[in-house]
Write a structure and sequence with these properties.
Structural class: alpha+beta
Oligomer: single chain
Strand content: 15-25%
Helix content: 25-40%
Largest sheet: 8 strands, mixed
Shape: globular
Low-confidence stretches: 1-7, 229-233, 281-307
Order of helices and strands: HHHHEEHEEHEHEEHHEEEH
């Protein structure tokens, strides 16, 4: 069964503010309007209802989405309306937070991590351990002496164009981080190494704090990526196969918004405001556990996470 970080219901309180479900600010190019999200929700319910006749495991998700109304939101990550509201909330609060960091002349980077170890077959996606994955990310950020970081897990269905490698789900992360770029790249390179599936597992670019760039880690659309045969060719995006969509929706519903988030030395308040907690004496409980397990990790001579 899917394992996620400790449940934190701050977003339930924050999303009581109906403005996140409306069409007001924040705005950015390509952002869904409420009508579009509602249309997607209806279509998703119809498709899931159809397939639930032969796949009864989809029935709970169908009931969840059908119960999502303007008065009582389901707050499922698999719901287009609720996912849109959460993305708007996160984008607005993170943008405000980044503007304050810019005024303090903090360097802010966009960090993408695509671990080869997180490439899993379709039937293993529901078994993916997001709690351990988040722990590994935080431990690596700690070693890189990152001031703070925030982002989310993302998903893509990767297909090898040559046919030599079987298709895999790629669980990866998009983060916004502050720290020394060289130190970050060095720490990441020690943990996340290239493989046949992933030739470049991490990359860091300068972060442009536009609403679109900030919203990207919290996107609610997912694609199938066709890996090129010749190195250097552009990766082609395509629609997800139906079977993989159903698998992903079930996973998203179990994940929760808190489980999808990765927060390092920052914290969302009950009103959705984002604060820097790096100066506090008390460590993140996960970071404290890293320090206790560090000697074990070195002793057994293998990665912190085994999938």
């Amino acid at each position: 069964m899917l394992r996620t970080p400790t449940r934190n219901k701050w977003y339930e309180l924050a999303l009581n503010d109906r403005r996140w479900f409306a069409d007001g600010p924040p705005h950015w190019k390509g952002a869904d309007q409420l009508f579009e999200a509602t249309t997607k929700q209806k279509k998703r319910i119809e498709r899931l209802s159809h397939f639930s006749k032969t796949k009864p495991e989809l029935a709970p998700l169908v009931r969840t989405l059908r119960g999502c109304t303007a008065r009582t939101r389901c707050l499922s990550v698999a719901c287009p309306v609720c996912a849109r509201a959460f993305k708007r909330l996160a984008t607005k609060q993170i943008r405000t937070f980044l503007k304050l960091r810019e005024r303090a002349n903090e360097p802010i980077w966009s960090l993408t991590i695509v671990p080869a170890e997180w490439m899993v077959s379709s039937d293993r996606l529901l078994l993916f351990d997001f709690a351990k994955a988040a722990a590994l990310i935080k431990r690596t950020l700690l070693k890189a002496d990152v001031k703070w970081a925030i982002g989310a897990f993302d998903f893509s269905w990767n297909v090898d164009a040559s046919g030599r490698l079987p298709p895999r789900w790629s669980v990866h992360t998009h983060l916004m981080v502050s720290g020394d770029r060289r130190q970050i790249k060095k720490a990441m390179a020690k943990v996340f190494r290239p493989s046949a599936y992933v030739s470049r597992p991490t990359w860091t670019t300068e972060m442009q704090p536009t609403a679109f760039r900030i919203s990207y880690p919290f996107k609610d659309f997912y694609v199938s990526k066709r890996k090129p045969i010749v190195a250097g060719e552009k990766v082609q995006d395509a629609r997800l196969p139906v079977a993989q969509k159903l698998r992903l929706y079930t996973t998203l519903d179990l994940l929760t918004f808190s489980g999808r988030l990765i927060m390092f030395r920052v914290r969302f308040g009950t009103e959705g405001n984002l604060t820097d907690v790096s100066g506090r004496k008390r460590q993140d409980p996960q970071i404290e556990s890293f320090m206790r397990l560090e000697h074990l990790d070195m002793a057994i001579g293998r990665g912190f996470i085994a999938f």
